[in-house]
Amino acid sequence: MKKLTMRITKLFFGLFLYATGIVLTINANIGLSPWDVFHQGLSNTVGITMGQANIIGGFAIIIYNAFAGEKIGWGTISNMIFIGIFVDILMLNRLIPVFHNIILQIVMMGLGMLVIGAATYFYISVGLGSGPRDGLMIALTKKTNKSVRFIRSCIEITVVVLGSLLGGSFGIGTLIMAFAMGPCVQFVFKLFKFNVKGVKHRFIDEDIKYIKDRFILKNNRDNKVDCEDL
């Protein structure tokens, strides 16, 4: 129980950090990240918050990933729901300032990317499944047999185009994050000496099987034994 509590705490700390990093890059005000261009476009079109747009986008992606055969973890579901909630809490309460000095804006964007890198380490290292968008990248890589770099680039170009058509804004910061986010995440992973390939994830279907074996089948066996005794 103590180990599980620590894992859940680490997961939600990572999700809150991720939301903080997202808001830092948004409030830097020199261009949204590719996915946030789409989220903003969806937000403006439907009349919802950025956080709600994040949740809706994540939900749609999880459905696709499930049909594509990608396993879903509790961390995946938590990522979908709580990052959006935390983004709204931070933005609607204006807990992170907006800067207008270009130097401070660039520093803020760089800090946001590093925070997202640290957040990625925290939530992936608990081994409860990757985020919906990472799962989409993996699913498309398997289906097309193309490189991860190619698939990620295609996804980000697609969401920027769709987001722009929906009214999302992009700028120099969008290009910076498209090229610099990966190296920032990799830098943080090296800092924590974290090998993402060494993480063994536990997925929801495994927990369902455990519950079924532990309780349902056990009860059936016990009932069978009782009937035989009678």
From TrEMBL:
Keyword check for Membrane: yes
Keywords: Membrane, Transmembrane, Transmembrane helix
Residue spans crossing the bilayer: 12-30, 42-64, 76-96, 102-126
Protein name: Membrane protein YczE
Organism: Clostridium punense
